[in-house]
Design a protein that fits this description.
The structure is a homodimer.
Chain A: H1 9-39, E1 54-59, H2 60-63, E2 71-79, E3 84-97, E4 115-127, E5 134-143, E6 147-156, H3 162-177, H4 183-194, E7 196-197, E8 202-203, E9 207-214, H5 219-241, H6 251-270, H7 273-280, H8 285-288, E10 295-296
Antiparallel strand pairs in A: 1-2, 2-3, 3-4, 4-5, 5-6, 6-9, 7-8
Helix pairs in contact in A: 1-5, 3-5
């Protein structure tokens, strides 16, 4: 039997580098969000203290309900503040064996005998202000009998703003174009398709990019692209938060926001593959469902 | 080809009677809930007007996103009041053809060539007071190449009260025992199994009864049992609302309530078969998701 990515030393180094990148990106995201909280002294909720991230590590072997005799874990970072109502940034690095009924649903999961390794970062920001868009970013590396990257970033404004939408897409397009001019149109369309609430015939937000199964044959290039998506998000999202965060909002704006958040919950629980993957593979429930909004209405 | 329940005149009459019963039960439930709203003049939110049901009919052929060239429809009844924060009572009578990938998941759906008829009533009550239990009741008749009843009732107190739990289960046990002494233990266990949040290892509430595929061979007896479950709920639930509805609650009680409601949403969107059935068969989205709580927190 030849080495597969699960056991090959070349892949051991790749795993280490990817996991280290997700951790570094997490630190940079948390730092800029805490800086925004400090700047929130002119925001409508300025009387509240600037929020700080609280980090909670979790251990998969100890906490996970899944089967498979597995290992790894992660760290949840949550900030509840005056600009960010609830923002979670999770990183995790897990490995083990998929259950027999699940492995065939994952690329290479049958060939690896169900063995897998996965690491990633996942971010969801729900904002106090109905005038500041919510956002999601996630990138991950998964290894079975093969290895690949996936991820994306998308924006969910409660009140869409054409300039914000163009700036967000422009930043992601630039990141994509640095790797392959075909990526942006393909990954934008994939995002529109993925974040679609079929039962309502609605988009979740104004889109972004989504990619999965990225294994071009050049691992270094794929890893660089994955980093570029993270870096593009780190750069653009704060530039969409700051111009709106001090604007006053009305009760009607807030009512609209908490109602629109219901769509976010519907998507996450009815359709999101990452949520299903996490719940099926014994991930930490609090970490997986950290993406759900802090206050939601189905009036 | 012999007549199946989809086309047999004997079943035509049964369908008519079942649909008429669901409508009658709806009227009686709405009447008692409106009476409770009138009695809410001593409740903590007494300054608000007594709530009244608003009825909205919907037409499946016109509104439904499903495939199948189908018919039927239903009526949503929603009351937003001072005792009931949001209570919905839906009735529907629909027929058509299941999509080819769905029919084999329904009993007799393959044998009927996907043809089906279904009628039912579904009720979910989310209360203003964190001290008044939320409740769910649903009964339905489904016909494919065979016909059967399903349904149940269960209670979700935010602060469990042993006397309430015993009274609720006692009423359902009495209804069950009137048909078959084996029903209550079997349907109680089924309810505990069904309303289980596997990802959290938690029960949704304090249970009740749940039954499906009820086709004993004596349709009249099965229909009578189904009516008895509805009547038992009609009798017992108001007797669990009235003693608590005027008690004052604290902000901490309310925070606990909106957080516990998150579990209700997770169950509905991750696990509930009725929700999946409705969304898959082109039911009315607003009617199906009317069961979601009016205000929810994942803090």
């Amino acid at each position: 039997m030849t080495d597969t990515p699960v056991t090959d030393p070349v892949w051991t180094d790749r795993k280490r580098r990817a996991a280290a990148w997700f951790e570094d990106l997490r630190d940079r995201l948390c730092a800029v969000f805490e800086a925004i909280e400090d700047e929130g002294r002119d925001s409508p909720l300025a009387e509240r203290p600037a929020g700080r991230f609280q980090r909670t590590p979790w251990d998969r072997a100890a906490d996970g309900p899944g089967d498979g005799g597995d290992g790894g874990g992660g760290t949840m970072s949550i900030l509840r503040g005056r600009v960010f109502e609830k923002v979670g940034v999770n990183i995790s690095t897990v490995h083990g064996t998929f259950s027999s009924d699940f492995r065939d649903q994952v690329r290479g999961g049958g060939e690896s005998g169900g063995r897998f390794w996965a690491a990633g970062i996942s971010l969801v920001a729900h904002m106090q202000s109905p005038l500041v868009p919510a956002a999601h970013m996630n990138t991950r590396m998964i290894v079975t009998s093969r290895g690949w990257f996936g991820g994306g970033a998308d924006l969910t404004p409660m009140v869409p703003d054409d300039r914000d939408t163009q700036a967000f897409h422009g930043a992601l397009k630039a990141a994509c174009d640095g790797s392959d001019p075909g990526y942006y149109p393909r990954f934008k369309a994939w995002c529109d398709d993925y974040f679609h609430l079929k039962h309502r015939g609605e988009a979740r937000g104004v889109g972004g990019v989504f990619f999965d199964d990225l294994a071009s044959g050049d691992w270094e290039a794929d890893f660089a692209f994955t980093r570029d998506i993270g870096t593009a998000f780190l750069d653009i999202y704060p530039r969409l938060v700051r111009p709106h965060m001090s604007r006053p909002w009305t009760e009607a704006d807030r009512a609209h926001q908490v109602q629109r958040r219901g769509r976010y919950v519907e998507f996450t629980l009815l359709y999101d593959r990452g949520t299903a993957f996490g719940l099926r593979t014994g991930g930490n429930v609090e970490a997986i469902l950290m993406s759900l909004p802090p206050m939601v209405a189905w009036p």
